[in-house]
Design a protein that fits this description.
The protein is of the alpha/beta class. It has three domains: about 10-325, no CATH class; about 340-400; about 425-610, 3-Layer(aba) Sandwich (Rossmann fold). The chain contains 20 helices and 15 strands. It has helices at about 60-85, 95-105, 105-140, 150-170, 175-195, 205-210, 215-245, 250-280, 290-300, 310-325, 340-355, 360-370, 385-400, 405-410, 430-440, 455-465, 480-495, 535-540, 550-565, 580-590; strands at about 10-15, 20-25, 25-35, 40-45, 340, 380-385, 410-415, 415-420, 445-450, 475-480, 500, 515-520, 565-575, 595-600, 605-610. The strands form four sheets. It has a seven-stranded mixed sheet with strand order 11-10-9-12-13-15-14, sandwiched between helices. Strands 1-2-3-4 form a four-stranded antiparallel sheet. Strands 5-6 form a two-stranded antiparallel ribbon. Strand 2 (about 20-25) and strand 3 form a beta hairpin. The termini are far apart.
């Protein structure tokens, strides 16, 4: 029973090595089953038709554009699939290591390049020069063929090309690996048909569907061959007249000229063929069946019934391509396979730039996962599959917007490892200025209090630094029990002697202190929405929101600090840009401080306020 298509789609695809590529309007997805039997997915965004120049959307011209882009994307997907499906051992061989060290390439990349060159030479020889050669032999034996200004010559030459194409397909059926590729081709068609029939996409439904499809690349190639026969035959008339006018008699010269004329006419042939294919695909009427029949017959050769594992590849690729078309935030994916720093790093930076993520994060990811300094990334090297397996999950999670240091679980602050997650603010490099000022102020026997300690980074760094040559006591407070749990873990990690108190500023703090440090929330409430998405959406708002003008916590500290400050003590606080002078005014108005001063950071921003009592 012939099903009616009720849910037509523009998504198309092709078989690749051990997998399927599906291409929509805004994204393409390739799914490959690797040598371990696992499905790997790579998804990339592409330029949608509506964003192309107007001229590229005109009939016939759009066919040329689509032909070129599909060819380029298809070849790229084919090469990428080979890198996944045909993988080297986890432990590289001596040859692989030597090639990687001396040529900065993988053996797989070299083999793929050689195979591509051979494939291009073979295609040109089989489908261009061989038909011309055979037709030339017939023309030499039967000169009458050259009458009618070469029309019959070009028709015969086109017939040879079509015959060689069919024989080539039949020859490929001898090889098991190519028969498997034809099975993946069948899985691609059956999956698209299943969707267009309006059936839920699952293995059982896909298996029931036809493996023939109107928009198949095989059908397109047949149409190209047929149209080229007609176009080249028509061009044969003026071309033969040109030969006679120019006095060109030699078969070699005529064949060379004919070859370049065919290259020039290829866009015309592609444009016409695309429009023919598009028109035929608009209807399932039996009236056009005779026109579709040759393509269907060829598809009988280039598609085979797939197994369940192949269908799973096609379904995953189709669903991802569809998701990328429907959801602009659908994440890109990258194959876990051997690559090079010079390829992976620019790809990551480009993807981050499109998401407004700092490009330096890409360098940090490679540096930390490969355990090399960032400066070493300037020297190209091969990244093995095991190394890539560590890098890509971090890259893909960063693409969701989650801060890099939450992903790694720790960061470096003042030379000390500090664990961080969504319970605490990530300590910034500029906060190290606060620690530096505190360490230079603290004397032996002093008592230190760190307010709004968060991850405990400031308290831990101070305790570790001053304990090297001074005996001090360090207390840290925070209102959040979750933040204090992280702070205690960081103190244990760095063997820092810090006493932690759950307190809303001074509420549960007792005693007087020689030095009090604070990095309180200082972002104005109205500016929270303007912060970078990774800060706004992931870091705790309680550690950011400083009230309407960002100065609420400074006012609260000023109101009570005198009760907890020892005589001759120092209050050292971090602040936001353009807040320092307002903070000094608050303390001079509220407290009996002896002096106030500002310390600028490396960027020249007034970053730290010091109040002396």
């Amino acid at each position: 029973m012939r099903r009616k298509k009720t849910n037509r789609t523009y998504i198309g695809g092709q078989a690749v090595i051990q997998g399927v590529m599906m291409r929509g309007k805004r994204g393409m997805a390739t799914v490959v089953r690797d040598d371990a039997g696992e499905l790997q997915l790579e998804a990339k965004r592409i330029t949608p038709p509506e964003k192309r120049k107007k001229i590229a959307r005109f009939p016939f011209i759009r066919g040329v554009v689509n032909f070129v882009t599909s060819l380029v994307d298809g070849m790229r997907a084919l090469f990428r699939s080979s890198e996944v499906a045909i993988a080297e051992d986890e432990e590289p061989s001596k040859l692989s290591k030597w090639v990687a060290d001396h040529w900065k390439m993988s053996v797989g990349a070299i083999v793929t390049t050689i195979a591509t060159v051979i494939g291009i030479v073979l295609a040109v020889g089989l489908f261009i020069f061989l038909p011309l050669y055979f037709t030339g032999l017939i023309a030499d034996a039967a000169p009458v063929i050259n009458e009618f200004y070469g029309v019959w010559y070009h028709l015969i030459e086109g017939g040879f090309r079509l015959t060689i194409f069919i024989l080539y397909i039949l020859f490929t059926l001898v090889f098991k690996s190519l028969r498997e590729t034809y099975q993946y081709h069948g899985a691609e068609h059956k999956t698209i048909n299943c969707y267009e029939y309006g059936l839920p996409l699952n293995v059982e439904n896909v298996k029931k569907c036809s493996r023939l499809h109107d928009r198949c690349g095989t059908t397109f190639i047949f149409i190209v061959l047929f149209v080229s026969i007609l176009v080249f035959a028509l061009v044969g008339v003026p071309l033969t007249m040109f030969y006679e006018w120019a006095g060109i008699e030699g078969r070699i010269w005529r064949n060379l000229i004919s070859f370049f004329v065919r290259l020039l006419l290829l866009p015309v042939v592609a444009g016409v063929s695309y429009e023919v294919l598009k028109l035929l695909a608009l209807t399932d009427s039996v009236l056009v069946l005779p026109l579709k029949a040759p393509g269907y017959l060829l598809q009988k050769l280039t598609t085979r019934e797939p197994d369940d594992r192949m269908i799973e590849c096609a379904i995953m690729a189709f669903e991802k391509a569809k998701d990328m078309d429907e959801d602009p935030d659908s994440p890109e994916k990258t194959f876990v396979t051997e690559t090079k720093v010079s390829k992976l790093l620019p790809m990551m930076k480009k993807a981050f730039a499109e998401k407004d993520i700092d490009a330096s994060d890409a360098e940090w990811i490679l540096s930390l996962t490969l355990n090399i300094p960032r400066s070493a990334l300037a020297t190209d090297r091969v990244i093995s599959r095991p190394e890539c397996r560590k890098i890509l999950p971090v890259f893909e999670e960063r693409m969701t917007g989650r801060p890099l240091w939450y992903i790694f679980g720790d960061t470096n602050f003042y030379g000390y490892p500090i664990k961080v997650d969504e319970r605490v603010l990530i300590p910034r490099p500029e906060t190290e200025l606060l620690v530096r000022q505190a360490v230079s102020t603290i004397r032996g026997g002093d008592s230190v209090l760190d307010l709004c300690t968060g991850s405990g980074a400031v308290a831990v760094a101070i305790a570790c630094e001053v304990s090297k040559d001074r005996a001090v006591s360090v207390t840290a407070s925070d209102i959040s029990p979750d933040a204090l749990a992280v702070a205690r873990e960081n103190a244990r990690l760095n063997k820092a002697n810090v006493t932690f108190v759950q307190s809303d500023l001074f509420e549960r703090v007792h005693g007087r202190f020689n030095v009090i440090t604070a990095n309180p929330p200082y972002v104005p409430t109205g500016e929270i929405a303007t912060l970078a998405s990774d800060v706004r959406d992931f870091e705790p708002r309680i550690a950011l929101d400083g009230g309407e003008d960002g100065l609420d916590f400074y006012r609260r500290i000023a109101a009570k600090v005198s009760r907890y400050m020892a005589r001759g003590g120092m209050l050292i606080m971090e602040c936001g840009e353009n807040q320092a002078q307002q903070i000094i005014k608050i303390f001079r108005t509220t407290t009996r401080c002896d002096f106030a001063m500002v310390v600028k950071d490396l960027a020249g921003v007034e970053r730290v306020v010091k109040i002396g009592f």
